[in-house]
Amino acid sequence: MPLDLDAAALAALVARLRAAGCVFAEDEAALLVAEARDAAELDAMTARRVAGEPLEQVVGWAEFRGLRIGVEPGVFVPRARTGLLVREAVRALRSCADGAGGAGRASGAGGGGGAGPVVVDLCCGTGAVGLAVAAEHPGVALWAADLDPAAVACARRNAATLGPADATVLLGDLDAPLPAELEGRVDVLVANAPYVPTAEIAHMPTEARDHEPRVALDGGADGVDLHRRVAASAPRWLAPGGHLLIETSVRQAGDTAAACEGQGLTVRVVHDDDLDGTVVIATRRGA
Questions:
Q1: Whole-prediction pTM
Q2: 8 Å CB contact between 227 and 89
Q3: Which residue among 30, 127, 140, 260 is least packed, with the fewest CB closer than 10 Å?
Q4: Kindly report the CA angle at 195 between 117 and 88, in degrees rounded to 5?
Q5: From the centroid of its chain, how far is CA 281?
Q6: Gyration radius of the chain over CA positions
Q7: Distance CA 148, CA 216 (A)
């Protein structure tokens, strides 16, 4: 049963959140009230939010591309701008379907042995990107991986709840845990790898800096270290005509694109002003 809060108590909650710097205090208050089972839990959740913990970690979920993604304390929170990565990945899958077809579909290389297109989600965090792609392009065989055990556990729970049935979440550094049978069979490889320059982490909002794992934020000196590693490994996994998509920033897009071009991939950059998102799309040449 929803918690019943009178107008005075709700106003006090909004004021408490606003004083803590919550820009959308009214919306956050409404969500906290909706999620709390009783007054004591509401007070505890509010205290966590006022202390700077991300709202999504406090309530336990984030809305992402129409999905309710489970988010646990200490796990990277999906950002709205990453919806661009999903949108472009789905477009890439559709372009594969309209063409001759990728090797992933022909091979049946997915976790459950199905014949759908193969999608790999590196640095998967909660699993939001891969799961959203699978929801918007049904029938994919999804593989996801992350270095953080807490993120992998969270992603596995989300995969069990949201599907697809043909989904596998692995623990390991970038592509290291992927099975050899995926080589040359991946239709779409997505990566929301960290791209915050090391020196800039100290200037990030408290909720990210203090409550999300540094491994999910730190992209090295110029923020592109992980992008270079992903680009270097991508040709091993991509099917002919397969696509690598990396979320980046406007400032870093040139370096991310150069890393992909250096691996012989054909590159273009997509930016969406409304989402404030930027994605580099790199395609392996071939039939």
A1: 0.92
A2: no
A3: 30
A4: 30
A5: 16
A6: 20
A7: 8
